[in-house]
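Hi R.,

As promised on Friday, here is the backbone we talked about, encoded as structure tokens. Could you run it through your design pipeline when you get a chance and send me back a sequence?
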């Protein structure tokens, strides 16, 4: 796998745009960097490639690279943040992706990248309700030419799809049912009858904010119930501690943008 990450050099909790963020609670910046470096090392030890984008002072949430774009088949759909505090991250990620040779497309509405857009097999699961606009889902389908499945998020703690649902491989997901509207829950049951259903305890430590390469699943170490469920299904869970970044509402997946190249035509 090829990932893009952003070192949390300028990480802080200076504003509150989700319920996890409390600007009055202390953050340990050195610990945040150390925890991030440990995550990066896990990817390197698994044999993955990690690219880095230069962090920018004054953009404390830039560490959450998953929100920087959605990259499928060598095409990068750039982002448009809901909140003005994160707006300047969008052009930074866009120019990195251009320089790296990806074909970059512009969003039409609020679009927070892989935070809300998750590829599973040939489908794109698309969250809405808090950040990415429902209208953008149709645009995502046009850009990537893949069916987009709209999922309605209903719990403000799980404001991005990647906090409530994790893609494990081409056919399998794990998710927290309560984070979705009744209709979206029914859609998920239909599409993924064999999904792992996470518990509230696992979701509350951002356990679903995990990164899978199809076999190894890198997830918050505190999500012990989910780790056991994964092991039972034959995956290898790898726990990492990102407690400092969780104070901004982020976990391993938020820190990780998947760079999917164009596949050679078969
Ligand atoms: N503080 C950031 C925000 O609220 C956290 C983003 C987490 N990223 C994610 N992919 N869920 O926007």
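Update: got your reply. Pasting your designed sequence below so it's all in one thread:
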């Amino acid at each position: 796998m090829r990932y893009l990450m952003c070192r949390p050099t300028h990480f802080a909790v200076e504003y509150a745009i989700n319920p996890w963020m409390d600007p009055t609670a202390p953050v340990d910046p050195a610990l945040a960097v150390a925890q991030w470096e440990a995550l990066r090392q896990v990817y390197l030890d698994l044999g993955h490639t990690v690219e880095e984008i230069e962090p920018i002072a004054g953009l404390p949430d830039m560490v959450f690279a998953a929100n920087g774009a959605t990259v499928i088949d060598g095409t990068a759909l750039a982002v448009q943040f809901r909140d003005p505090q994160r707006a300047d991250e969008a052009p930074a990620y866009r120019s990195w992706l251009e320089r790296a040779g990806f074909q970059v497309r512009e969003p039409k509405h609020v679009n927070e990248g892989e935070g809300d857009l998750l590829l599973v097999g040939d489908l794109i699961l698309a969250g809405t309700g808090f950040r990415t606009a429902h209208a953008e889902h149709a645009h995502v389908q046009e850009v990537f030419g893949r069916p987009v499945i709209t999922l309605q998020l209903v719990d403000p703690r799980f404001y991005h799809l990647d906090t409530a649902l994790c893609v494990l491989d081409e056919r399998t997901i794990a998710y927290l049912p309560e984070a979705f509207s009744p209709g979206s829950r029914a859609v998920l049951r239909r599409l993924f009858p064999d999904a792992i259903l996470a518990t509230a305890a696992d979701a509350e430590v951002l356990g679903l904010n995990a990164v899978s390469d199809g076999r190894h699943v890198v997830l918050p170490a505190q999500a012990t119930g989910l780790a056991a469920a994964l092991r039972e299904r034959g995956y290898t869970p790898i726990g990492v501690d990102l407690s400092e970044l969780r104070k901004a509402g982020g976990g391993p997946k938020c820190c990780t943008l998947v760079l999917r190249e164009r596949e050679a035509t078969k």
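One thing I noticed while checking it: The helical segments are 29-45, 89-99, 134-144, 182-191, 200-203, 224-232, 243-246.

Thanks again,
M.
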